[in-house]
Amino acid sequence: MLVTPFKTPPPTPTTVSAAASSSNHRQNPQIHLQSVDRRHILASLAASIAPFFAPPPPLESHPPLLPISLLPSAAARGLFQMPPVRLSNRYYLVRAGESEFESLGIINTNPVAKTSVDNGLSDIGKKQAVRAALRLKEIGACENSCWIWPSITQRSYQAAEIIAAINGVNRSNIVPEYSFLDARGLGAYEGKPLQSVSEIYALDGVSTNIKPPPINDGTPNESVADVFVRVTQLMSILETQYSEDTVIIVSPDSDNLTILQAGLVGLDLRRHNELSFEPGEVRFFDPSSIPTYKQPASALYKCLNPPSCT
């Protein structure tokens, strides 16, 4: 509940004549500072701290303490890891339709332009978004309600609105994501032909830590590992915020989704491009594809005769 602090209204201004002001000034008594006896100070101090030294009430007045085993467990689910032990929600991964830049065959990943009209859906992209929305309706993704998490990128949010409209989802269920789902920053490849992305994927296959060459126009140059951190943080938020819900993740590019899916299934991140998404593609993430969690050796080892353990 929002509580507004109470503020005392300022006093109503009054008009005082110069004569009255002068008269009041002459009548004001002079203020004299009285000396304070040291004994009075000590007595006041003792009275103020006495309650802190009072003996505790008898144990009978305290409520009985519950054993630790009976205390309610914390609701927190702990640190999210890839691949996860389990997922609490159902996830649909959607790549937004083709953007205006993509229709021109140009790479555009600078976050400065992510909300511009040129970064919106092209005519073909709008049709792709409609097909994606119809596909989600066909498989009943939002029959029992759903949450739509698009990137704040123009084309992703437009696709999210189309999905919501066709599936009868209230717009309040669209939760724009401001940074974790930004298109992967491709650095010096900004403005180059789309076909040159294959060069970046060749580097991804060598190491997940190789970044595209930098550029000084504000476009980030992100490695696979950088994107992996972002999408892991996103999943941590979703798994904490929702439980037994359906979440539709709408990304402006393929890399966010391929790296996310590779992390969820435990695939070598250098091979993420093998999971490439086409514009407007919808993919349900099947929890059965998550590998079985294997406990570390330290969790399986038990000492039967502490402290003599071998």
TrEMBL record:
<dbReference type="Pfam" id="PF00300">
    <property type="entry name" value="His_Phos_1"/>
</dbReference>
<feature type="region of interest" description="Disordered">
    <location>
        <begin position="1"/>
        <end position="29"/>
    </location>
</feature>
<dbReference type="InterPro" id="IPR013078">
    <property type="entry name" value="His_Pase_superF_clade-1"/>
</dbReference>
<feature type="compositionally biased region" description="Low complexity">
    <location>
        <begin position="14"/>
        <end position="23"/>
    </location>
</feature>
<dbReference type="InterPro" id="IPR029033">
    <property type="entry name" value="His_PPase_superfam"/>
</dbReference>
<protein>
    <recommendedName>
        <fullName>Phosphoglycerate mutase family protein</fullName>
    </recommendedName>
</protein>
